[in-house]
Amino acid sequence: MFESLSARIQDVFKSLRGEVRLTPEHVETALREIRLALLEADVNFKVVKAFIDRVRDQAMDQAVLKSLSPGQQVIKIVRDELLALFGDAKGGLRKDGPSPRVVLLLGLQGSGKTTTSGKLAKWLAKQGRHPLMVSTDVRRPAAIHQLAIVGEQADVKVYEPETMDPVARASGALAEAKAKGFDTVIVDTAGRLHIDDELMDELQAIKAAVRPSDLLYVADAMTGQDAIKSAGEFNHRVGVTGVVLTKLDGDARGGAALSVVSVVGVPIAFVGSGERLEDLELFHPDRIVSRMLGMGDVLSLIEKAEQAIDEDEAVRLEEKLRKNDFTLDDFRKQLKTLRRMGPLESVLGMIPGLGSLKQLADNKPDEKQMGRVEAIIGSMTPDERRNDKIINGSRRKRIAKGSGTTVEEVNRLLKQFTEMRKVLQMMNQGGLPGMGKGFPKMPQGGFAAPGGKKRKKGGPWGLIKTR
Predict the structure, then answer these.
(1) Do strands 131-135 and 242-246 pair parallel, antiparallel, or not at all (unpaired)?
(2) CATH topology of domain 298-465
(3) What is the spatial distance between Cα 53 and Cα 34, in angstroms, rounded to a whole number?
(4) 242-246 and 268-272: which strand pairing?
(5) pLDDT tens, 143-155?
């Protein structure tokens, strides 16, 4: 989402790093480029003006201009001010609230409220909670049936009464939750193509009936400043406690995310970054800013890896790597694990130093190529996947025909796999050519994450080793 904005800002920082000493002219030139980048990203112009003024006031300080690393100082100032745009509120639901707590999802038609209801329910279930969903959208055709399908996919109970009264449906769901032990009620409300009095009256009636602890406005990040204006109107008429930004994996320019806190005055609670029900994340402003500035996002990468990697499989793979018994079957499993972590481009952006590297390519990372690799390995027999040395010319022709690829592609894969296995063997022995013995071996029994929390044994090492 922030790809274009991130590339522009990183280019500005590169020019600053090349200067031995910064002058006010250097700073003004950099700020002009940053201002243009933010405006092109559809950030609210008032937010941009205030942001640039704050950065200028700090960057023009003599202590910064005369420091030994003025470029780094300016980068730190920009980073801190970007974080300030998002506010200091943490993502997620409010910490306090009655039980069962009620979460009201608001927004215009087509913003993704129903899908977000399922994503939020699945997220809550992972936190050990027991959510109940209900739809109060009685006007849109098949809206109630759509939520029922989403609930089935998320394995979450959906309250489906006979009544078509939106207030009665919400009140009934709350009574059902109290009676049967559900601790959270997610109310999927109706939307319109525009804001009208009838919609607001209905939402206010539902709010009065169920007394929600969280009112989340679901905003489509692709709509830019229109989403911000609508969020402000909903906040004024009904009251909003947080924003859920959907479609962050799209090609939106990012202005909505950078403007919403300053313009609407409420924090971003969650972000949706994909079509799967698992693709809902707590909003971490520090991680978003780090990615924008090309500093990576290692914590999110580790979290995604832990969700995708089976603990027993990771331990087994680590043992195979130690014995130099890594096969094409293992390689295929690791590719599937990598794909479960989300789009490859998004994963690369989380690795420090690779965020800008991937932008140098003419095309985005080729997901189809990964599919072709899986098809080639899938066309091999179990014996061939266990021992690639037996794959002769005739076998290569059969594999290429079975996978819909060419013999050249099969040869390329086998060559790359052989070279990769040599590198893995050298890494496991503690050294690479030209590096002596200083290359770190894989940790025994996992590793500690920031904060001292012990990660799963094996961790994401199996994944990393296949790259």
Answers:
(1) unpaired
(2) 434 Repressor (Amino-terminal Domain) (1.10.260)
(3) 12
(4) parallel
(5) 999 999 999 999 9
